[in-house]
Task: structure prediction
Amino acid sequence: MLTLIQSGPSSDAAYRTDLIRRYIAASDKFTELALLAEAARYDKANPGQSLVDELFGAGLGDVA
Result:
């Protein structure tokens, strides 16, 4: 089960890296969609560089 971090993560970079790793390791589309939703909520609460875009880019692998 995925849990949205309600308070700010102790390290923004560590949180982003962890979410990207979980997205790349996702074994099914449901998990990928749940992680994208978590990233979208994070982006809404933390304007700036899009975590959703980072996930999409990471999912492209060598194509990007």
